[in-house]
Amino acid sequence: MALETSIIFPTNKHNRPTPPSKVYLHGLDGLSAAIQIHNHRFFRRPSTPLPDVVEQLKASLAEALELYPPVAGTVQSNDMGEIFIAMDKGDIVGTPFLVDLKDTPFVKDEENLSPRTDVILPPMASTLAFSCGTICVASSFNHQVADLRGFLDFLELWAQLSRGEPADFTRIPDDWERTPGRFFTDLVKQFEGVSLAAPPPFVLLDTPATGPSAYLLAPSVATNWKISKSSMAQLKHDLSPPAGSGLWISSGDALAALVSGAVTRARQDNKVARLEGRSSEESEVESIAMAADGRERAPKGDMSGGRYLGNFNNLWSLTVPRSDLSTPTTEATGRVALAIRSNLEIHLSAESVAKRVAFFDNPAVCNPPGRVGWVADIVLTNWCRFDLKGPKLRFGWGEKPFMATSGGGTVFPPAYSLMTEDKETGDVFVLLTVENDGESALAGDVLLNKYATLVSS
């Protein structure tokens, strides 16, 4: 039962430059669906009384909203279909903050702990206190406003202010405009006036798409896996090229190859229908798309460290022989991992990122909105680099979080994987989905089970 609902408005403590009244979204922002990114952090019973915890969270959230005007704004569109963030005083409708006192103990993370799962408005936060003393601080964030890195930049500022520390203005953008090309100026210039083809996995449509590809709408089941630190090391060892070859793979490459093969085999073994949006049967290849933050690719190193708020997840893809993905051996999966590494170094080079930015800077590409689509058989998102329980995300009361998640029970498309890592133990947790018809084959995949333990499905 909801104990309290408050509306949090930005404070007026800091003498910061007045933000623009509107910030128009970049083409890369438009790729993100109007959905929420979630973050749940769970704490043991704190020594600080709950009312004091709540007031500390609300006061620091209000100050963080002042320092991040786009987060306090509202996402709107005009008659031409252009999407923008409105930040005039009249457009600041406030951020709902819920306090929910549960009469049951904490059992597990669930979707209904999220403060918002269906309505796309400004960010929302909630504090849930369970009868056992566990406190969950749950936050949701409009994906069109920013990607995970941008979301975490805001959450880290909120936590910093809650701890009573002064804001670090070197880690707050001083320009809210969605112009990522300014960080790649010299590289982007070489593409001016050049007609660029859509970089894979993107496709340029003659008319705006009216909805996602058919396969993305197929009912799916989410499975959750745990890979211990030692198993991850063994996986990388088993998939690595021979010593002396001059070639190498990362642990992330090995993990991506493992889950991609498992999904491909599950679909094949249980004869999952190949719907529109996937590679054809005759092509004998599968397309793997991977999201990667491109901020650190800026030549001058001035885009990372909280300096850009927006979506700069550079989605890239590669095609892999279906025969390698279908073969449950370390040799075949190692070839997939090596292909991922080779393509990653190409597609995430500074020049390739700049070329992608130049493509989306072209007004003919983004107008009308919806002309850019993408297709892939498998989509991977790796959050292992982010310490979701780390010191930057602690509020200053109680102990560190004993668990942090991307939200439980959320509905995902099939052949999607989200990977996170517990930085204290080195254990990796993998959310992996497949069409309903492929569930039994995925759960029983021999190679996946060699390294991973099925936690839930």
UniProtKB/TrEMBL annotation:
Residue ranges the record marks as coiled coil: none
InterPro entries, per the entry: CAT-like_dom_sf (IPR023213), Plant_Fungal_Acyltransferase (IPR050317)
Molecular function (Gene Ontology), one example: acyltransferase activity, transferring groups other than amino-acyl groups
Keywords: Transferase
Superkingdom, taxonomy of origin: Eukaryota
Extent of the signal sequence: none
Name of the protein in question: Transferase
